[in-house]
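Q: What structure does this chain adopt?
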Amino acid sequence: MIHALDRPDAGDLRAQTRPDHLAYLAGFAVTFGGPLLDDDGQMCGSLIVLDVDTREAAEEFAAGDPYAEAGLFERVTITGFRPLLGT
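A:
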């Protein structure tokens, strides 16, 4: 699971980079994902659950994401996840 929070001064960077980000995601086994929303309903980060075999594969995915390459994120956390409910 990749939990990424946008940097506060990101401005329009998310919108500008979104087409490249979505195209990038199409090349991977994404279980589910989407934007995180702040209390005002504005996008403030991303949550992606990715089906990969190793943490290194998740790290490579996260580093290659156009959002990450553009410097959108203030913080990225990668955590293992085992689906139990809603599967």
